[in-house]
Design a protein that fits this description.
The chain has 210 residues and is mostly helical. Helices cover 62% and strands 6% of the residues. It is built from twelve helices and four strands. A hairpin with a 2-residue loop joins strand 1 and strand 2. The two termini are 30 Å apart.
């Protein structure tokens, strides 16, 4: 049976992707915390996971299953917000709490998300940037091996370089870049890059698993 708080979260509307596509996960998480607080919903780990997915589905969906939230992605962000950055109080086990610093970060997050006005010049510039990124992808060793049907030769180092990192880069950062790459390829309707991404997902499931 659905309780009142679950119903409130279920009714949360997603935000237009253009307004948050370039905003980091931690600010999106803090924005989610602010929304739940405004709605008088408990700041439990489970509520934050679902609410973040409802608000920002393209950033908090499970890789390969876009209709479901990625709880690990949200947990990692919450850990950074509480333990590393000290933006938020509490823990996943007992629930989170808004502290003085939280208020500033939530306000800043709202400005980043809701205060963004996109004019035609910005759109043109962002489209050009995405085109350049996809162009650079085609120059990577991983893509060249894919084109030459040497898929078995692609290794983890190739993938890390493709995702603008190294073997020492945190997996969460690499996965964030992978999500952006997939989104850019979809937006620009690049069948070649989308086909490449599909092959990577099929052959490196262990790597892209959170």
């Amino acid at each position: 049976m659905i309780n009142n708080q679950q119903q409130i979260i279920a009714n949360i509307q997603s935000i237009e992707f253009a307004k948050y596509q370039n905003i980091d996960l931690d600010h999106l998480t803090m924005y989610t915390i602010g929304i739940l607080d405004e709605l008088n919903v408990d700041l439990s780990y489970e509520n934050v996971v679902v609410a973040a997915f409802k608000l920002f589905p393209q950033k908090f969906s499970l890789n390969g299953f876009e209709d479901y939230p990625d709880s690990d992605r949200t947990r990692n962000s919450l850990n950074r917000c509480t333990m590393n950055k000290k933006w938020l109080g509490g823990k996943a086990l007992h629930g989170f709490e808004i502290i003085e610093k939280s208020k500033y970060i939530i306000s800043d997050s709202k400005k980043k998300i809701l205060g963004i006005s996109i004019n035609k010049q910005n759109i043109k510039s962002k489209t050009r940037r995405k085109e350049l990124i996809l162009s650079e992808i085609k120059k990577t060793s991983a893509f060249q091996k894919y084109i030459n049907s040497d898929i078995d030769e692609i290794n983890e180092s190739d993938i890390c370089y493709l995702l603008q990192g190294t073997l020492d880069t945190k997996k969460s950062i690499l996965l964030d870049n992978f999500i952006l790459l997939k989104l850019y390829a979809k937006e620009l309707k690049s069948r070649e890059i989308l086909g490449f991404i599909k092959i990577l997902e099929e052959n490196f499931k262990y790597f892209f698993a959170n």
